[in-house]
Amino acid sequence: MREEELTAAVSIRDLANAIRVLSIDAVEAAKSGHPGMPMGMADAAAVLFGRHLKFDSSEPGWPDRDRFVLSNGHGSMLLYSLLHLTGYEDMTIEQVRNFRQWGSKTPGHPEYGHTAGVETTTGPLGQGIASAVGMAIAERRLSTEFGAALVDHRTYVFCGDGCLMEGVGQEAASLAGHLQLGKLIVLYDDNSITIDGSTAIAFSEDVLARFDAYGWHTQRVDGHDPDAIDAAISQAKTEGSRPSLIALKTIIGYGSPSRAGTSSVHGAPLGASEAAATKAVYGWTADTFEIPAPILKTWREVGAKGAKARKDWQARLEAAGADVRSEFERRTAGSLPARYEEAVNAAKAKLLDKPQSVATRKASQIALEALTELLPEMIGGSADLTHSNLTRVPAVDSDFTAAASGRYVSYGVREFAMAAAMNGMAAHGGVIPYGGTFLVFSDYCRNAIRVAALMGVRSIFVMTHDSIGLGEDGPTHQPVEHLASLRAMPNLHVFRPADTIETLECWDLAITSKNTPSVLALSRQNVPQLRAQRDGINRCARGAYVLREASSERAVTIIATGTEVALAIQAADELEARNVPAAVVSMPSWDLFEQQPKDYRSSVLGNAPRIAVEALSKFGWTRYVDSEDDVIGMSGFGASAPAETLYEQFGITGDAIVTRALARIRGKQ
């Protein structure tokens, strides 16, 4: 909506001031929050939403809408103000009044799935940009598949200095330039202020020169000049293959007589007298939380202006043909094909017909070979470890590059950006992303994994080399504490499968878990195929199950995961040979096991003494065994040696299991 199209009495500055005063009022009412950024970026927001952003507030989930990501999520009131002003149904003025309060749709930082119009959870700085890179990847891939008539939208990002200081922001920007994601436009709030004071205390590089080097198109304009902002966005939209960064020179806390341009306005209310003085600067005379009718009417027109574009798009979808339409709708809904379960069962039957003793990372590749052909929405990748993670299979053997939009993304040595981009792809919809690295480097990915769990998106993290069993690379690459820390995370499936069958079942669960991300912890070393049942049951779905029951009433139960399940079977055989009835429980997923009814969990664990076996930290296992003395595992870091030597030296052996089991049975603690 151009300036000349606005009501005569309403200007872009009036629209921006509505954002400012709502943000000020909400932060004052909450007695906490971040008013400075919304006050500084309101002009850019008014221009972007009023003149460029393709959206329809009556249909927040319209698949071909432009995406708007508030990477500097602490300025959440800017977004909530926009959602209210443009007429999103559930963003009422009462929600704005209840900013940061229990049960509101206006939490301190924007949360995906909690508030309509929030495209991704932001707050951990830099991840918004990285998620936006994933959204741009998803858009380009889907446009290649379904055509520009159905998929043709941009991803816009607001970010601040913090997002550009964080390493993940730099990783993501480098990747975006390399892939030439031309529909990605970032508006940089260049206000020269951080929480601790001037950016000069820690941040002095030429940001535009850095982005030029990344291969971006860059501009610098006055962030309080609507026409200059408009022209810059218009120019960015014509840049073709280059992503764009527009540095907006802004004043944080714009309009505040005594606090504008200072760090004191970043993260605290203005206070009643300063808020009143600031509104006077704006010429704003309306009451608290009140928007003058002409301004609100104009904003609502902005929110409705995309309805025609959405209806035109809907007509194109209807005209695309039944097959294209049904596939597009299936993909955007996140549903799986009708033949999916049949494909899983066929893959399992093939493994049962011809058992394989392979590393579970190889078993993962076998599972992917079976499933990715049926699921064109699966987009794979690796952080420069493809041949170790084994994430590349024939169906995804087409590269996503600057020139082509294939199904495999080479993320480079950018684990954090990979994980965050995957979240953006999953939140965008229409694709199921999976990406690989070593389990030890899950630490680099961890905050993005946490955001995935918080959002409830289907990001699948393939983490290979899952224990000291990776061997000679030594303790820097041998994960010890990682699985325990990941298991502590809410709404995250953590799978450590024991063989080819369990690996396939865990992949099945990851793919079908639409609202929960997954980590697959996979081995470097080979393991025997342990399962032989042909009953069509996914036993991993219950988290743990009795793999081998005792010959008579249990004297001991051995619980194990991953590669150590085979070791537990060997120990159980030895105990049985000594007339000690021993059961083996395979526990590929703690979190799924904890979701089972108490009766089931009791039946699996039994009443006999229990031993746990895992070539990782003992931490956490005392929820299933009496003490860490009953855990055959690691108490410290690993070492550099062949896997067999490491298991022997660290006492993770069948003999150690037998010895501990006999001690428990004999009553020795």
Automatic annotation (TrEMBL):
| Active site, renumbered | E415 (proton donor)
Q: Might you report a single GO cellular component term?
A: cytosol
Report the leader peptide range. Answer: none
| Reactions accelerated catalytically | D-sedoheptulose 7-phosphate + D-glyceraldehyde 3-phosphate = aldehydo-D-ribose 5-phosphate + D-xylulose 5-phosphate
Cite the position(s) of the site with description Important for catalytic activity. Answer: H34, H266
Q: Which InterPro entries match?
A: THDP-binding, Transketo_C/PFOR_II, Transketolase-like_C_2, Transketolase-like_Pyr-bd, Transketolase_bac-like, Transketolase_BS, Transketolase_CS, Transketolase_fam
Amino-acid positions noted as binding substrate in the UniProt annotation, renumbered to this chain: H34, H266, R361, S388, H465, D473, H477, R524
Query: Which parts of the sequence bind Mg(2+)?
Result: D161, N191, I193
Keyword annotations: Calcium, Calvin cycle, Magnesium, Metal-binding, Plasmid, Thiamine pyrophosphate, Transferase
Residues annotated as binding thiamine diphosphate: H74, G123, P124, L125, G162, N191, H266, F441
Assembly mode = Homodimer.
Q: Which family does it belong to?
A: Belongs to the transketolase family.
Q: What is this protein called?
A: Transketolase
Source organism: Rhizobium freirei PRF 81
